[in-house]
Write a structure and sequence with these properties.
It comes from Artemisia annua. This is Histidine triad (HIT) protein. The chain is of the alpha+beta class and about 190 residues long. The chain has a single domain, classed as HIT family, subunit A, CATH 3.30.428.10. It has four helices and eight strands; from the N terminus they run E-E-H-E-H-H-E-E-E-H-E-E. Strand 5 and strand 6 form a beta hairpin. The chain is globular, with a radius of gyration of 16 Å.
Length: about 190
């Protein structure tokens, strides 16, 4: 059982699912790289499913509060490292402004994060300014493209957590595109 510190707010549940985000030739090295970054053991993924589980003790709300205290430091986030390809991810869509990749802790059969490649002070939706209107619209349109690519355009949800009380865990604006099952209302 691993205990996570505040430096890992993205890993936010007691049963963390890591999707295989790399081809089989690079899988072993990528697993070692993720283990060295996050300091927890990862079970080898089975080739036919591409998923494995890691159990951890973690308080989602406490991590969100800690992440909020570090939000405006300007330090690179885990998403900045994914954008620069320092951390591997399973990219679903990419253009000059946004990157979309599979969430490592999926809450639905399809769970993709859509992020702007340039933060530009947009750490959360609550910090949006008129100058961000273009990228906000682009993020929504990219979410629709992701839904099309994933075959869920007939029914999907886009979620934005903004701030600690919404359990935002990474302060780089991001949209969750969820689908592939019947979604319930109210969501939370």
């Amino acid at each position: 059982m691993a205990v996570f510190t505040s430096s890992l707010p993205l890993l936010r549940s007691s049963a963390i699912t890591l999707r295989r985000a790399f081809n089989p030739l690079k899988q072993q090295n990528s697993i070692r790289q993720i283990q060295s970054i996050f300091h927890f053991p990862i079970q080898q993924c089975t080739p036919h499913r591409g998923m494995c589980r890691v159990s951890a003790t973690h308080d989602e709300e406490a991590s969100a509060r800690v992440a909020a205290t570090e939000a405006n430091t300007g330090a690179p986030t885990i998403f900045d490292k994914i954008i620069s390809k320092e951390i591997p991810s399973s990219i679903v869509y990419e253009d000059e402004k946004v990157l979309a990749f599979r969430d490592i802790n999926p809450q639905a059969p399809i769970h993709v994060l859509v992020i702007p490649k340039l933060r530009d002070g947009l750490t959360e939706l609550g910090k949006a300014e008129p100058r961000h209107e273009d990228i906000l619209g682009h993020l929504l349109h990219a979410s629709k493209i992701v839904a099309e690519k994933e075959g869920i355009v007939e029914g999907f949800r886009v979620v934005i957590n903004s701030g600690a009380t919404a359990c935002q865990s990474v302060y780089h604006l991001h949209l969750h595109v969820l689908g592939g099952r019947q979604l319930k209302w109210p969501p939370g």
